[in-house]
Amino acid sequence: MILSPSLLSADFVNLSRDVELLKAANVKYLHVDVMDGIFVPNITIGIPVVKALRRVTDLTLDVHLMIDRPERYIDDFCKAGSDILTVHTESTPHLQRALSMIRERGKKAGAALNPSTPLSAIENVLDDLDMVLIMSVNPGFGGQKFIPQALNKIKALKEMIDESGKSIAIAVDGGVTAENIGQIVKAGAEVCVAGSATFRDGYKMIANNVAMLEDSARRA
Ligand code: DX5
Ligand code: ZN
Questions:
Q1: I need a labelling partner for 114 at 20 to 30 A (CA). Which of 10, 120, 174, 189 fits?
Q2: 43-65, pLDDT tens digit by residue?
Q3: At 141, is the pLDDT very low, low, confident or very high (cuts 50, 70, 90)?
Q4: Three-state SS at 189
């Protein structure tokens, strides 16, 4: 299991401190939530912050685009230093084009599915994917409750991927905690995004929170 802490719950005034604490806790991925106020009802951060993060870290920047028609900005986000770029299946009529744009730029391509979106949304683009991100909350905000239906979706996705014989990572995002991460990993998730569970109780607890999440995943 790879933990991908969502920086949405970090302290934006002390972002590089939090990134250093995550690195010291042996974290490999950083999840960056980009929201445009149109695809989701919230606005967060964009290209300059990805660029700034790239300057201070060599960790994998796992950038989650919750923006309408992401193909308009794929080039910018790739140049800013993203390593994995995930677009939502619901955000563009040209998903295959968006995914191939990401790969052409030498980055890993992900597709995210909202809780109500069926797996059939990605079945025709398996050749273009490095990762599928199953949303276990409706995107837009950190700190929401995990929607348990996501577990069946992860299992079905794992079957779909195994049958295809392709190497595509399954990621889960939203409401992941030390209590449910075991079930999530058991269902087949390899990348677990966690925002509030990573940063809860202040920055001094980051290492502890990361260890708790990883231990619970390992025990599953
Ligand atoms: C939700 C974002 C998530 C979010 C996760 O729209 O995509 O990455 O920050 O936060 P938690 O772990 O608090 O649900
Ligand atoms: Zn996210």
A1: 10
A2: 999 999 999 999 999 999 999 99
A3: very high
A4: coil
Residues for the chain: how many in total? 220
- Dig out the tokens for 193 from the structure: 């995004």
Say whether 33 is catalytic.
yes
Distance of CA 32 to the CA centre of its chain: 7
C-alpha of residue 174 to centroid of ligand 1, in Å: 5
Average pLDDT over residues 33-47: 98
The answer to whether the CB of 92 falls within 8 A of the CB of 67 is no
How far, in Å, CA of 54 to CA of 83, rounded?
A: 10
Is the separation of the CB atoms in 6 and 193 below 8 Å? yes
Asked about 173 being catalytic, the answer comes back as yes
Residue type, 93: P
The pLDDT tens digits for 175-200 are 999 999 999 999 999 999 999 999 99
Question: Can you read off the two tokens belonging to residue 81?
Answer: 């230093």
Average pLDDT of the segment spanning 18-39: 98
d(CA 15, CA 29): 15
118 Cβ contact list (under 8 Å, min separation 6): none
Query: What does pLDDT average to over the chain?
Result: 98
174 C-alpha to ligand 2 centroid (Å): 7
Give dist(CA 189, CA 17) in Å, integer. Answer: 29
- Rounded CA-CA distance 8/22 in Å is 14
Arithmetic mean of pLDDT, 112-122: 98
